[in-house]
Predict the structure.
Amino acid sequence: MNSKNTKSVLHQMWTAKATVLMIFMLFLSAGLFAQGKKQISGTVYDNTGSVLPGASIIEVGTKNGTTTDFDGKFSLQVAVGGAIEVSFIGSTTQKVQITANTSNYDVRLQNDGYALAEVQVVSVGYGKVKKSDLTGAISTVGADDLVKGTISSTEQVLQGKVAGLNIIRPSGDPAAGSTIRLRGGTSLTASNSPLIVVDGIAGVDINVVQPADIKSVDVLKDASATAIYGSRGANGVIMITTKSGTKGVSVTYNGLSSIGYVTDNLDLLSANQWRGYVRQSGNADAVDYGGNTNWQKAIEQTAISQSHTLSINSGKADSGFRTSIGYLNNEGVIKKSGLERISGNVSAYQFLGDNKEVKFDMGLFANIDKWHPIDYRIFERAYNLNPTIPVYNEDGSFSSVTGNIYQNPVEILTNRTFDNERHRLLGYFKTDVKFLNDFTATANISLEHNAVKGGTYKPSYAVMEGQTEGGFAQRTYAEFTNAQGELYVNYNKTIDKHNISALAGYSYLENIYQGFGAQRGGFVTDAFSYNNLGAGYNYRLGDVYSYKGKSNLVSFYARANYGYDGKYLLTATVRRDGSSRFGENNKWGTFPSASAAWRISNEGFMESSKGWLDNLKLRVGYGVTGNQDGIGEYKSLSILGVGNDSYYDPVTKTWSLAYSPKQNPNPDLKWESTQQINVGFDFGLFNRITGSFEYYSKTTKDLLYTYEVPQPPYLVGTMLANVGEMSNKGVELTLNADIIKGEKFNWNANLTLGHNVQKIEKLSNPTYKTDVIYSGSLHGLAGMSGQYSQIIAEGYPVGTFWGFRNAGLDADGKIQYYNAAGQVVQESALVDADKTDLGNIQPDLTLGLAMNFTYGNFDLGISGYGMFGQKALNATNMMLNDPNRLPSFNVPDDFLNSGITSAPKYSDYWIEDASFFRIQTLSLGYTLPLKYKKSKMRFYVMGENLFVFTSYKGVDPEIGLNAQDGINQTGVMDQTGLAAPGIDRYNNYPRPTTISVGLNFTLNN
Amino acid sequence: MKIKITAAILLSMLFTVSCTDLNEQLYDQVEDGEFGNTTKEIDALVGGAYSSLRGFSDAISNNFPTCEYVFFLNEVVSDEATIPTRGTNWYDGGQYQDAQKHTWKADNRMILSAWRYNYTGIAKINAIIYQINKSSLSDKAKEPIFAELKALRAYYYYNLLDLFGNVPIVTNFEDTDLPSNSTRKQVYDFVEKELTDAIPHLNPNVVYSKLTRNVAYSILARLYLNSEAFIGVARWQDCLDACQKVTGYSLTPDFFANFVTENQTSSEIIFAIPYDSKAGTVGNYMNSMSAHYNQKLAISPIGNYPWSANGMCAQPGVYSAFADTDKRKKCMLEGDQINLATGSVIMMDNGEPLTYTENLRSLEDAKENEGVRLAKYEMKAGEQWERDHDFVLIRYSEILMMQAECYVRLGSPDLARPFVQQVTARAGEEMPATIDLAFIDQELLKEFTFEGRRRTDNIRFGTFFLPWWSKGATEKYRAIFPIPSTVLTTNKNLKQNPGY
């Protein structure tokens, strides 16, 4: 064993066991001498049967040893009758007796779950740290633990996997994204999504990376961990490390085919139920159209989906590459909807120099999405339409009735064309140079490009918007480009028991966004779809547009770590961010953090508990982070622009464009700043259970919001400003247990729990006075124009329902209410002062649970997640239970028995507990062991969204956090703000239940 | 060695790449300092002052321009129009019921909309004056531009004087101190002075849709006509004098020529807000706010007419106030609505015929077909959602009627006759033997139905405070609206109007 090997082993061995082994090795080796020697050889495998390069083989009691080569093979001269110890980081060390007549020893090492976790390296931003050395709150999810199945957006792989991280999918639309919230969110206006960092590139679209290319995900939760990302770190950071060439050659194929179907529809009257009602009520005017239609079923379909990923991996001693190509086609359960994606990924690395002093890394990710956004207004119409209206007339044309919000939803889906296409590209080139022994300099340049093209055509025969326009065509294009350059130097030095590391760096980010579009109406023929805009004769100002903007972010950052004997660990970071978006008076912000950890279990006085306590670590951290997403470009300036402000010139009888001041400029505009304290424990017990517990308290100051300002003197009635203050406090628990670890049978369970309490602390300052912000708009619902269901006010969390408390129905079926004095009153007697807190949309508890069983070659997995204690406004139900609807509009079955006679009015009568637990996946697999070089083939069947435990009466209790006015027409989610969450409002794209069969095949060479 | 070179390259990159420039670069907009130096740019700025007359729509008000800002409010609280709740529709927090019953509160969003409409217009003009003031234009060149802008601003202040009375006066864009109220008298004096000062510099000719000398005199005439209601000082003669300065207009032979799609050619319109869907103008949805959902079948056999909301209608008593011979009666839709495709009566979704009735079951629960509808502006098959007809603010017949009213009030009804006769003759109406205020009041109702000015007439004639359909007697303080509650919250220097 040469000195260099010793050093590298030393460097990596931080587990207790490894240390013990080392001490053993060093002290005992001197005393032994060679007896009768013999040459032995063998191969070392890991617990899955793959060869294990780099495992150590030491002859017990000597310094004599070697490591396995690239193919896991070793050979060594050893004394007959002696023993060898085979060890590998993260595996249980195994002792093998050497006998005279055997010279070939194949050794299979078992995983040491605890030790493996401890030596994992975790991405912390501009570098990696061993998990055991962490001082901040960071959760890691490995590739094996990511959620699998019919996945259209990458964030879904984290659902239920990280305590405190909520992934909320508002619907089952494959083209709809998810909302990611860590620890409750921090902002009213700005994005509450964590910063996504892919292979060190900050701020990218998470969907640029496909789930099959992910090696691990590290979620940086507390401010001491995220402060290194400064003004973008307040909502946490999700660090994605992608797979790169590993040693050996392998080809992997993953395929999945599935069918999805709708299991939950609203129970509305069937045509016969409707006829029964009409007969009973004796309504002579009611129009029976003679059909028999379930309008919900009429817009639904069975979704057939498939996905395929093929990857090639090749790695040698000093270089490696990996390529993958993927195709997925996820149909939606609503006709026409779906998502088709082609993706590709190439990554490669190359070392240079005798001692691998230089490393080049490059990666390229690209994908193309195609989808047909559907008009979400179909759901309201499907609920509205009289079930006796047939979908088609006898001549095959679409039936159509003339009323308002009454159009045939099948016609809407069929006649109109929406084609969207998104291109994503991320490329980077990274160079690491080691110098002066302890330094590594890194230069990383990257480019992300994201472009969306759209084409819309509403033909002249399309009832909605097509007819009046005489055919309407539109093309749109929007793109953004993020160019980043980063340069940083890492220093790492171990002197005796002292470990010192430091980082200093600089980064420059330039974001350019631009787009253009054109639209026209009035087509003589519908033959061109959106491909010949020039053929439209109805031209309006504003039918063509283009825009462009730019922002940049300049940052300097530094971090220092100090560790003593692996017991006492300190980290301090600072980042200074300058952003062009910030106002003139606040161009630069500084974001510091400090944290410390104590490995209590490594202390001498803990020796007695070694038998059961593998690890106990206490962590404390504090930091300040920012959020600058809500500012947008140019908001601090006084600018003039053209809107659609045209003016008439009576002399020339023509119209010209006016230029007007656009906004109240705010030169004081700056980032939102979040201070966070985090206290956490990591523990490992009985070599079976690992876990961590976190307590955090964070306060966000200078909340950005478009505050109402008095007119006069202000130019416009609102102004973006930093005013309010919000707090989030909570606890999180993560537990992972190897409940049974056997030769054949294994049972592993993983549990995450999160609890968060949010409160608005302040909304006013000396300049801006706000008592309350009304949110949760009900605008657009019949009779509720300009009405709001929620408030944002001091002392309450975001999403607090505010309104009248119901006292049930009176004898006439009218909903009664409590007034402020607690008396039961009729609707007409209510005054504003009777409005009260009706609960809020914040869950008390979020939970994720996963269990994996293996028996021989069989594996069984089950995972689920849930949210508990949150309220939702079932506005769909509120609007459908309207006595004015029959006989023209359909109603729920329940309505006929409910006896309700009052017209819809917002109150807690329609607010429900939306707690749920969803069985997300259940899978059963069988792995076929292949003789050829440990190649593997696994077949599986999987069910997704098999069951939801809930008392919620609507279609789905998991309601989007951002449904401002429902998902907008093109199905694009509003990704910003917390303003109107938790309202179930006709936007019930059903979440399918999916059954899939899949194949994973790895061929090793 | 190689490594050292690489390291050196990397380190030098640090300094060459090192860019800390954080200035914002604008691509599709300009900073205020870089605009307003050419005639074209000045025209584009002044044009913006006019385009703001169309109003705007934003998240605060959730409302449509023009229709709901001033027009809806002024009509719905008058004896002319009402927005009944129909089933679930048009309840909207009770804001329209409150308007009808005269029980509005300071948080009524229609009131906030009216406030913001006017103050946004004022703030824009202040910004434009500031912008032009900075430009390289000579003072002499600036003078007529400022006069035009200030007169337009005075129009907004006239609205505020009428609606809210004691409003703050802000004229300087750079002054961002929170203002306090001026008295109604101060606002009145301000409007009078601004208009009088501007008049010598304004265009003396008839120029459609621009704030000319004629328009300024018309606004002054309105101010003097309502002077007694505003500040308790009657100024009938001043009103007459101002009216006589308005020249170059004549009544169109056809009353409805003022309300057709291409109404910009009317010889009668003194001031209007131009609209043209092709020019991207947004708003002016009055017809659609009133017509029933299925009205489109009476306009086009295939229903090719924009969506309608079945809201606003005439109060009971308005339709029957017109003689059947009165040509203006056609400004309302009453009775069976005929489906152009079938020739029979249009059916509503509930199976009942679409027959508009003058009477309504109740304000709180009107049936779909109740209430006669507004149809003053042309409704054409194939029309787009964005309408093309210009919204009329001041017509020459108003100048005639103001003079008639002033003569009656000054005790010379015979002098009023030639003025009012022109109006009634065109309508095909008989003149009464004696012209009194009651006749003038009724004539104003019939001539200017749904033109957004009835509330002011009701107050001047005192009828505003008397009971009418779905409304009891009104207390005097409601002659002006309360200052919107959110404005009071954000500006602590403002005091609420008395009574609220």
The longest strand of chain A covers residues 472-495. Chain A touches chain B through 106 residues (CB under 8 Å).
